Amino acid sequence: MTTEKSHNVTFEMDLLDSLSAHVAVLDPDGTITQTNTAWTSFDDDCQISRAAVGTDYFNVMQQAVELGNDYALKQILGLKKVMSGD
């Protein structure tokens, strides 16, 4: 990895970590590629588990839908619209 690329990755992670919002970056298939500190340290008891890097986020959300979480279904549909460019 070049020094410039390494600096960019560090800057990107620092930027994500500076946000208080819980952020997970998804690839086009819905796999989590990055998360920020707020995402990984958030500890709650809701039906939606905090998925780790490498996890298919849509599968996690589908599990929540199957447990009756209507918000998870709305989130899946909204994310897929955004990712398809609609």
Judged by helices, strands and strand pairing, the structural class is mainly alpha
- Give the fraction of residues assigned to helices: 40-55%
Q: Please write the string of helix (H) and strand (E) elements.
A: HEEHHH
| Radius of gyration computed on alpha carbons | 14 Å
What global shape is seen? globular
Q: Could you describe the 3D structure shown?
A:
Strands 1-2 form a two-stranded antiparallel ribbon. The chain is 52% helix and 8% strand. The chain has helices at residues 3-17, 37-41, 57-66, 70-84; strands at residues 24-26, 32-35. It has one domain (3-84).
Question: Could you give the topology of this structure?
Answer:
Layout: H1 3-17, E1 24-26, E2 32-35, H2 37-41, H3 57-66, H4 70-84
Antiparallel strand pairs: 1-2
Helix pairs in contact: 3-4
Summarize this entry quickly.
This protein is mostly helical and 86 residues long. Helix content is 52%, strand content 8%. Strand 1 and strand 2 form a beta hairpin.
Defining key terms:
4 helices; mainly alpha
